[in-house]
Amino acid sequence: MTARFRTALLALTLAATAAHAQDAHAAYPDQAIKIVVPFTPGGATDAVARLLATKLSGKFGQPVIVENRPGASTLIGAEAVARAKPDGYTLMLSGSTTYSVLPALKPALPYDPVRSFEHVGIVAMAPVVLLAQNALPAATPHEAAELARQQTAKGGLMYGTFGPGSAPHLTGEMFAQAAGAKMVPVPYKGSAQLITALIGGEIALAVDTVSASAAQARAGKVRALAVTGDQRMPQLPDVPTFAEAGMADVSFVGWYGLVAPAQTPSTVMHTLNRAMTEIMHDEQVRKSVSDLSLNPVFLPGQAFRDQITIEIARFSAVAQRAGITLE
């Protein structure tokens, strides 16, 4: 076998291998896809994941299954996806808790929010709302801030959260810092307990998701003072944003993002990005997301990574000033 013949044969082999790999990737997906949700069933993250699963299945002609893997503040599910085979058949939909809050507050994680994943896109934003008990003499965030300053010398106003490092906790600390006051976070297991405590007068203020608390506010059981985000929420149209109220530094907005494991082939990522772009521009999908009291968006690739970087820096600064750490 001449050297020229061997070289030609090697070139043909490499070309055939490349073509086979390209065909394999072009065929994606040819089996079921799994979307891991690191929360229990029934919440907003789970609802968004199931909506996306249905739409992706329709586009791809393959089953798309949601697998709930809760535990350890989303670490169990996130680590599993970070270690999964990077072939596009294991994805994760999770909230900013996984991508920016925990990395800002927890010294060691079993994954890196940027390097451990390929970022498909952020699909929804989730503003939160500052609530007050009806007996509190505060109808605006500024009046609540004044009360908080007055109570600082007495130990501080108590406000409800979902526990250390949660979205309500960080938002409450942002509000306290904007008010120049000391406030006392009180942890509850979820929205139901938090709202009950607020109605019963156990706490003066609370921070909750709009989706969980809008109905109670509209019914007059609690008072909504301000929402985070750039725009008012349709569920609470009379409630101003913190920016409108002159407290733009109170800026925590949760969000939900879809990722694949790092090293997922670019051809697979292109297929996923194209499908998700079409899905998130579908008016029916946008309405379904809005009905969950979320703002539908699509921030792909670099915009997703930029959001992570900006928020880690912001939340780290808030946590340092407030002395928040997670072990």
Description:
Helix 2 links the parallel strand 1 (about 35) and strand 2 (about 65-70). The chain is globular and about 65 Å long. The protein has helices at about 5-25, 45-60, 75-80, 95-105, 140-150, 165-180, 190-200, 210-220, 265-280, 285-290, 300-320; strands at about 35, 65-70, 90-95, 115-130, 155-160, 185, 205-210, 225, 255-260, 295-300. About 45% of the residues lie in helices and about 20% in strands. This is ABC transporter substrate-binding protein.
Q: First CA to last CA: what distance?
A: 65 Å
Can you give the helix content as a percent range? 40-55%
Strand content: 15-25%
Provide the structure class.
alpha/beta
Keywords: Signal
Family: Belongs to the UPF0065 (bug) family.
Pfam families: TctC
InterPro entries: BUG, Bug_dom1
